[in-house]
Amino acid sequence: MAGHRRSSASRARILVRRVHLWLGLSLGLLFAVFGLTGSALVFYTGIDAALHPAIRAGQGDLAPGLTAPARDRALATGRTRWHDPDGRWTFEITGEGGAIPARYYPAPGHHGDREMVWFSADGTRIIRAEPWGGYLMSWLYQLHMQLLAGEVGGQVVGWSGMAMLVLLVSGMAAWWPRGRWRKALAFKRDAAPLRRLRDLHKLSGLWSMLLLFVLVATGGLLALPAVTQALLAPAPVPAPKSVDDGAGRITIARALVVAQRALPEGRIVFVDVPMAREGAIRVRVQVPGDPHRRFPASYVFIDRSSGRVLAVHDVRQAGPGAAVARWIRTLHDGTIGGMATRILAVVLGFVPALLFATGVLHWWRRRRMAGAG
């Protein structure tokens, strides 16, 4: 009976190793691409600014206040170039001086993707405008999130991420020692090259296993928002509409003041300004307890004509699903612990490439040795 159990355990271990090998050979290169592009994207705004010095000019100047007219001037400047009456503008509130970053989204059904636009500090000039995906860092972002293939690519990224979780778990199961742990965790410097490759692959995977699992799992959930919605069931974000009473439209400056009053303890990060008559202004706010500084999950919706608050989505009151969901992005991009964890995320991004290279070399050398024998 004991011999039968040992035989079953051996067959199970062989099967696990084969699964790990097949997944590694089929998904390893994709895993490496995700890791390397993810490393670059941890600091993608800083890298992009370094590549385009014009948008960094004046960053050390005093940041414009909420009531500053520069964003309204920028909106008027942008509308002279992009005329779609159903388009939408998004302005980022960086808390810094210098260029005003914005995004222009054409109406659904129109040709072209969003346009990334940077206005001069006074809002009177466009100093840079490029389509999303048309410059290096945005191209890397689309490669990382969608493999440059739109929604279909996003599905591939998400589900391949789930398969990569199996790859990681199978690697741990294939390694799990049956004898002494000290021996299993050792790196034998004086061993044959094939053994050193195996040890390097093994130890790289072991020491990064938990963090890689978190990065891969959160990346899969980001790429599969419908799955995330089904698993966590966070309270939906409202989508109220404005009432066009012919009384004109309020300024961005006024909308920001109204939003600040609605969530006085929050920090305003983005303001969305739709051009359509029924579109409500949406102000994105980071409230205390929301971990992501750049993409927080609370919103204030404001009527375009009256300036009345139409709805407030406070993530703190959106249920446990929303409480979990708000940590997904900050865990994935390394911002959870500030600069230290961002640097760690950069380093971890190189590990999948190392695992793929050592795994393929080990497999190839074993095949050569088996063929020679």
Could you characterize the architecture of this molecule?
By secondary structure, the protein is of the alpha+beta class. It folds into 2 domains: 2-43 and 141-232 and 335-372, no CATH class; 64-120 and 238-318, no CATH class. It has helices at 2-41, 44-51, 70-79, 136-146, 150-175, 181-184, 193-223, 225-232, 252-262, 320-332, 339-348, 351-372; strands spanning 88-92, 100-105, 115-119, 126-131, 267-274, 281-286, 298-302, 309-313.
The strands making up the biggest β-sheet line up spatially as 4-3-2-1-5-6-7-8
Overall average pLDDT:
92
Shape: elongated
Q: Strand fraction band?
A: 5-15%
Q: What is the count of DSSP helices, taking H or I runs of 4+ residues? A: 12
Major pleated sheet:
8 strands, antiparallel
**How many domains comprise the coordinates?**
2
Helix/strand/pairing category: alpha+beta
Strand tally is 8
Order of helices and strands: HHHEEEEHHHHHHEEEEHHH
The rounded Rg comes to: 25 Å
State the separation between the terminal residues, measured CA to CA.
Answer: 35 Å
Secondary structure: helix percent = 40-55%
Instruction: Indicate the low-confidence ranges by residue numbers.
Output: none
SSE blueprint and pairings:
Layout (H helix, E strand, L loop, with lengths): L1 H40 L2 H8 L18 H10 L8 E5 L7 E6 L9 E5 L6 E6 L4 H11 L3 H26 L5 H4 L8 H31 L1 H8 L19 H11 L4 E8 L6 E6 L11 E5 L6 E5 L6 H13 L6 H10 L2 H22 L1
Antiparallel strand pairs: 1-2, 1-5, 2-3, 3-4, 5-6, 6-7, 7-8
Pfam families: PepSY_TM (PF03929)
Keywords: Membrane, Transmembrane, Transmembrane helix
Protein name: PepSY domain-containing protein
